[in-house]
Amino acid sequence: MSVKAFKLVSAVEREMLMGDKNYINIECIECCGKNLYIGTNDCFIYHFLLDEKVSTAGKITFAATKQLHKYLGLKKPVSELKAASALTRLLVLCDNTITLVNMINLEPVPTGARIKGAVTFTLNENPVSGDPFCVEVCIISVKRRTIQMFMVFEDRVQIVKEVFTPEQPCAVAVDGYYLCLALTTQYIILNYNTGVSQDLFPYCSDEKRPIVKRIGRQEFLLAGPGGLGMFATVDGISQRAPVHWSENVIGAALCFPYVVALDDEFITVHSMLDQQQKQTLPFKEGHILQDFEGKVIVATNKGVYILVPLPLEKQIQDLLASHRVEEALVLAKGARRNIPKEKFQVMYKRILQQAGFIQFAQLQFLEAKELFRSGQLDVRELISLYPFLLPTSSSFIRSHPPLHEYADLNQLTQGDQEKMTKCKRFLMSYLNEVRSTEVANGYKEDIDTALLKLYAEANHESLLDLLVSENFCLLTDSAAWLEKHKKYFALGLLYHYNGQDAAALQLWVKIVDGDIQDSTRSDLYDYIVDFLTFCSDQELVWKYSEWILQKNEEVGVQIFTKRPLEEQEKNNINPDDIISCLNKYPKARVKYLEHLVLERKIQKEKYHTHLAVLYLEAVLQLKSVTTDNCTETTELLLKLRSLLQKSDLYRIRFILDKIQGTDLHMESAILYGKLEEHEKALHILVHELKDFHAAEEYCVWNSEGRDSQHRRRLFHLLLSVYLAPGASDCALVMAAVDLLNNHAAEFDAGLVLQVVPDSWSVQLLSPFLAGAVRQSIHTKRMTQVALGLAQAENLIYKHEKVKQKGAPILLSDKKVCQVCQNPFCEPVFVRYPNGSMAHTHCAANRHLNSNVTPHSPSSSNQT
Question: For residue 288, which of 13, 7, 38, 9 has the smallest C-alpha distance?
Fold first, then answer.
């Protein structure tokens, strides 16, 4: 695809060069700085000064001023010109001879230094000598198959090397020690220092003019077969794809990143970056095309023209204007070598951003996102395309010159709602990705506010996620937008995030009450309960507690029961105040008391008594309504019994008085048990409830945490209740037998045998008797084991005592107590394991002198 990379500008008109002498033709040209040298077919050299001028409109022109001309006197065409600016010398090839002339006055050097026998020559632009005051010249000699290397100084020449080639060379280019040669039938790379050669590809010089041009360090451009411009390195490989020229190319030049080629009718421009043809300029009768230090000059027989490259930035902008994004980016990357680093980075970022907007306008969102990221786009440039998304307080002003041609999204999509929706989806995705990256630094309020507006407008599920996480949404803009789109629950979250919990709760309560409509959460009431549960503002909790409890007291009480544990432990809200508040809500009051007593295990009599009374009243209320024990009654009875059994804090007599006269016999029995009136309790269980299993369980739970004697006493008491005089009920007899047989270990067999009726057979009590005998034997054996262990331990102690006695201990009036340092007055002392002795009363003192080793006083006393 075409791009305007160069403009053809005339440099030297025909009249300036030859006037009316039509026979004069241009044979060769050389340019060094502003100096332009032209060699003609009549053996003249012309010297011009080129002055570049730029008009106010940016148009470039060249004014050529003729300095002088010189006739060489050979009546032969001047074949080639090469400038050696370091030597102020011009190398002139005419009649197979290279002459050194002064660049200023075009006079030959006084020494007459020259190189004879040259068909063509070139300079080594990557010299190997290292001498700044000489140039290295490579010639194709008139000798067959011979290449010669010379060192040319200011006034002399010196041959360095002569190299022979396998075929007659036609064209040559040099880089260091490497020669790139066009032979008769092929191109080769030859290292003239080592003699090693590398074949490149075949080529027929009879059919086509060869082209060999050095384009960079160790890289050459060659005219290949099939109209291809081939790139080759000194290693014989190609690192770039070839460019497609016409079959009759006669010259080539390099102006990075372009390769320029000349044929009979056109000048063509190809990119080295993507090998595509970018420009074609009509140009007839051209026969010279060369580049000089970045300046491309083309000539016909009669005139000289300069290909002026358009600034790369303008070329890139033209490509972007044509929406040729890939080409623009390739060209921009290639321009890096020609532009200072800092300037390039600024330019390249802007190009990436422009390319991103082009892709965005074409709905190529993945490509656009990558370009925006790479170009470090100020995300507000993108947000500003969307009407009303930027906060009203934003001070953002779009980049100038603008990065795109669109006023807003409406213009970009031309009102197409489907496209607009896609663009909004993309912005949502992009903002969500960049909001937590460095791209958002400094713009977080703008980004999050825009994202909130997009989510609200699209009814997107991520709206709530945004508001419950860290965000920088501006309250004023966001609140108005959420209200506009009837997102009242989200608005409440916004208020909460900004510390306005009262405003949030007011909104949510209105939603639950139906004053405003928002179906975001069907469980909003539960959400409010949770919110108040963890709300640290007690005033708000009390303010909305009545509303919460009126809606559902069993759920609402959670604002008190599920508060954070540390807050409850500090009693930030007095439990008594809560109970007073809950007096109007019996179910909530019970649940709160259960929370205090059963969960928090608060050891206060009033809470335990209160809960027991509430359980009792509820049971009695239900029993007064229905005679059958419904599920609710059963559950309440179980709760009441559990509390009465496990708690020791409630007022037992008070509860017992309330139970008197009711049919709550089991509860009465539990209460009598708490009063240690076990006989009454067991009498109720056995004679009134006739629940023998419950009677046995009573003995078990009432003896938990007590010694075995207490447990045995309870079981004997139960047995005596079963066998009380006058109790002839067969069921009581069987219960007594079962009690003995099932709990034999709990009874003293001797006492049992004294109280059981003589009429009972041994067979009836055989399980009990067997268990009793087994228990007796077990007890005896365990006692014997314990006795044996005690005797063994005593023996060990005796052995230790004997060991401690050892040798006799001598006590005299010269011995002193190691504690008080006084002599012994009586033969009573304490001896420590280390051999030291002390008075018995001194040893009793815990604060021993440091002279006494602090071993435990396990030694014996001797008198």
Answer: 38
